[in-house]
Structure formats: structure tokens, C-alpha cells
Amino acid sequence: MPELPEVETVRRGLAPAMEGARFTKIEVHRGDLRWPLPKDFTQRLQGKTVTGIGRRAKYLLADLSSNDVLIMHLGMSGSFHVFRKSGDKALGRYHHERAQHAAHDHVVFHMSSGAIVTFNDPRRFGSMKIVAREKLDAEPLLSRLGPEPLGNAFDAAMLANACKGKKTSLKAALLDQRVVAGLGNIYVCEALHRALLSPTRMASTIASKIGAPNDRAERLVEGIKAVLNDAIEAGGSSLRDHKRTDGDLGMFQHNFRVYEREGEKCPTPGCRGTVKRIVQNGRSTFYCPVCQK
Ligand SMILES: [Zn+2]
User: Fold this and answer.
1) Which runs of consecutive H residues, i.e. helices, occur in the chain?
2) Between 220 and 14, whose confidence is greater?
3) Predicted confidence (pLDDT) per residue in 158-201, tens digit
4) Potential cystine with 203: which of 166, 191, 231, 275 (Cβ 3.0-4.6 Å)?
5) What is the pLDDT of residue 246?
6) What is the whole-number distance in angstroms between the Cα of residue 291 and the centre of ligand 1?
């Protein structure tokens, strides 16, 4: 399931094909994604220019010249592919490699830039929605999201305040999109390892009773920002490599330190621990019981 860095990489891959370009044709092969596409979907896009592509948590937001915003979510298995009209050569394949069959190309955007952008999603948990820009703040998909972890406002004080008094595990707190937006299982495991904090530790222990941050909160925020920035960097360099070679993208083969590394030696310098897997709230957690306290 794509998390924030993957979605950011997709955004950067789509921008050159879509920003400043008009929708010249929209094909909808299947409109029943996670939710049905709006009835006027094609009509509201046709002829409109994409003025910019942004991101909020795991949502891609394409600003349109009509003052509408096209909200796109990759779901579990969604991917975008960018083709050029001439030669049919894939310019970019943005997302998981399993989604390659044209039968799952549910939505196809033909852009005035000459690019053809396909949205492929075998499991159809992805979604697209169009909202008027002035209603964006009230949009239920976005309005309950917590802070962007890479935003300036997200710091130890903010995270500690959100975790104040929380009796859930730190892992569960970080997966809660109201506490911090865009993190999923992989990057939560990785951030906790970098911060040397146990995923089973109670969330409230990164804050004082009144919600002031302690050293753990500081380390955790640093760990979150570092792991996300590294992953975005890795995605960005795959995009650059891809443009050079026209080959397939391997952008999601990041080097994780603990995720899916059960039984391997802990990579923390000086630590002699072994990465362990436990199950929390039905999902695997990977961590080092020796250095993560
Ligand atoms: Zn360790």
C-alpha cells in the first residue's frame, strides 16, 4: 500500500505530463472504483487545464483552471503510467509493478502535452473525486487529516500534544491519520527504529501530563522526517534514472532497515540485537527489542 513518499514520487512523475496541459479526452473504462466516479466526471475535466499537482497526505490534488480540484487516491494497488502518443513507449510507471495489465486501465487521460496518463488498479480501492476548490477545506476525505509530517508546523510539541494521555501503543498512534497524516505500516516501523523507540511503548510517554514534548518526542519527529525524506529522495533518483534509460522503475525497492527483515541483524551501530516481528492490531511490526526502548 503506497504511503506518503510513494505518493509524492507519483506526484513528481505526473507533474511534467499534466501541469500546464489540458485534458483533450477522458476515457472511463470502469467508473466503479472504491466509490463510483461522479456522473459529470468527464464533463468537468474536458478542456480544463491542470494548473498544478499537489499532495495532501496520500491524496494527489490536481488544481484545474475551472477552480475544481481533482482528488486522486491510489488505494491498495493503484498506479499511474505515463505514455507519449508517438511510439507507445512508457515514460514512467508510477506505482507497484504488479498493476500492468491494460484490462485494469480504468481511467485514461489524454493531455494536450501529448502525454497519455492511465490509472490502473486491479483491486479498485483507488478513487477519484472532483470538488470545487472553495469546498476543499470541508471535504470529508481531507478535513480530518492530521498535520503533514514534512510540514514546518509538525514538530515535537505538536506530536506530543496529539499523544498526550493516549493509552494506545506508539505504533497505533502513528498510524492514526488524525495524529499525523500519510504514514503507514512501513514508515512507522522505520521511524520508530530510527528514533530507538519501542512500537509497544504507550503513546502518552512521549509527552508530559500537560502534553509537553520530551526527548522521545524530539527523536520521533526527527526519525519520521528523516525516513520520509530519504524515501522521497530514493523515489526522485529512480525518476531521474528512468528518464535516462526508459526502463522500468524500481523506485519502491527502498532499503528498509527493519521492515520485512525479521531475523536479520539490527542495523543500529553498536547494537547486537536481531530484528523481530510481532503482530499489533492485526498487522506486522518489525523492530529491534534491544535498542528500541
Ligand atoms: Zn537494535
Assistant:
1) 4-18, 41-45, 140-143, 156-163, 170-175, 185-194, 215-245
2) 220
3) 999 999 999 999 999 999 999 999 999 999 999 999 999 999 99
4) 166
5) 32
6) 4
Distance 271 CA to ligand 1 centre (A): 5
Longest pairwise C-alpha distance within the chain: 63
State the distance from the centre of ligand 1 to the C-alpha of 203, rounded, in angstroms.
20
Buried-exposed string 123-142: b where 16+ CB fall within 10 A, e elsewhere: ebebbbbbbeeeebeebebb
Please tell me the distance from the alpha carbon of residue 113 to that of residue 111, in angstroms, as a whole number.
Answer: 5
Statement: residue 275 has pLDDT above 50: yes
CA of 273 to the centre of ligand 1 (A): 5
- CB under 8 Å to 44, separation ≥6 — which residues? 38, 64, 66, 68, 130
**Cα 17 from Cα 80, distance rounded (Å):** 11
